[in-house]
Amino acid sequence: MWRQYIRKVEPYTPGEQPDSDNVIKLNTNENPYPPCEGVKRVLSTFDTDTLRKYPDPNVKALRTAIADYYNLSMENVFVGVGSDDVIAMCYMTFFNSPKPILFPDITYSFYDVWADEFRVPYKTKALDDEYRIVASDYAEDNGGIIIPNPNAPTGIAEGKDFFTEILNNNPDSIVIIDEAYVDFGAESVIDLIGEYENLIVVRTFSKSRSLAGSRIGFALGNAEAVRALHDVKYSFNSYTMDRITIELGVEAIKDDEYFRECVSKIICTKKQTQDSLRNLGFEVFESAANFLLVKPKGISAEELYTQLKNRGIFVRYFNKPRLSDYLRITIGTDEEMDKLTEALQSILEAVQ
Ligand code: PMP
Question: Which residues share a beta bridge with 101?
Fold first, then answer.
């Protein structure tokens, strides 16, 4: 009988994490560059005796460092174990209306999983023919809104006016903007937080700060909303961020110079990759993220995904409506992208 009381959910499927280091991994939007020097220093000098004690449940050091970076106060900052954890907390805290929450039909594929997990009703809004989000679709009655900017997996970004339109149309709903990839070329809405008390901006250290392995994410919002997030979090698990990770996060946000250097290298490599793929006849979306959504020519996306994998190059294939003709390719180092282009050339020559 116990089986009938199991919560049934269709889990999110993350990109493959191959065991071997001997592959080119362009499938989960990680940063190809290592974390900053300060992160390495923490790991080599960390006082292990302190692990005897629980970490600070208020995560004051990291929240203060993040607040300082964005000219906000610690009361505006909520941190968690990656932005996945932060967004899950947001669902629990803010999405309790009987009305459906809204998000795009083609977007981060965790949004509907959380909705099912937390039993939040939801409705998806179709991207237009150019795979853009339509702001006016988010004007109907709803229980909350979540949209990534840039959107994933298209990489297409919208500007601040687009989000002010959505915020102006929704004073009674929490609007979450998931800015996981914003540092790679999109405009942030963080400076709208003072103006819109219903705006929550979610960020991660996994992409632009090279710390996917440490799991650090955060949300910025007005103090009352952040307090509500903390109440839910402390009713669930108080000590989610460990002592080491907290220190790593502080170092990563402090080293702005290194951060900017890595981001600009990735943006430069993205432009070059975009050109090489277009030269191969691929359709490439204009991307403000650290990945490209591309439609190959002369071979199906699924076949190309398999052939690249056989050559030790991992990219992401989504077997979903309107995406099954595309591959999502993370921007790696120049050298990795050159190897990708060479592999593509050789695969395409063989099928012609
Ligand atoms: N939002 C979007 C749009 C993402 O693509 C990802 C990465 N899978 C996340 C959030 C979560 O990233 P993390 O938990 O590593 O911060």
Answer: 122
Who wins on pLDDT, 78 or 12?
78
Measure the CA–CA gap between 246 and 214, rounded to whole angstroms.
Answer: 9
The encoded tokens of residue 58 equal 């208020």
Residues paired with residue 219 on neighbouring β-strands, in sequence order: 78, 202
C-alpha 203 – ligand 1 centre gap (Å): 8
pLDDT reported for residue 115: 97
Q: Is 330 in the pocket of ligand 1 (CB under 6 A)?
A: no
State the pairing for strand pair 291-295/283-284: antiparallel
Q: What are phi and psi of 176, to 5 degrees?
A: -100, 125
Give the model confidence (pLDDT) of 82-122 as tens digits: 999 999 999 999 999 999 999 999 999 999 999 999 999 99
Q: What is the Cα–Cα distance from 306 to 97, expressed in whole angstroms?
A: 43
- Does residue 296 have its Cβ closer than 6 Å to ligand 1? no
Give percent above pLDDT 90 in the chain.
95
Structure tokens at 293: 């959504």
Query: Would you say the CB of residue 112 lies under 6 angstroms from ligand 1?
Result: no
DSSP one-letter string for 250-261: HHHHH-HHHHHH
- Taking a C-beta distance cutoff of 8 angstroms, is the pair 207, 150 a contact? no
Share of the chain above pLDDT 70, in %: 100
- Number of CB atoms found within 10 A of residue 264's CB: 11
| Backbone region of residue 121 per phi and psi (left: phi > 0; alpha: psi in -120 to 50; beta: other values) | beta
Burial tier of 302 (Cβ tally within 10 Å: 0-12, 13-18, 19+): middle
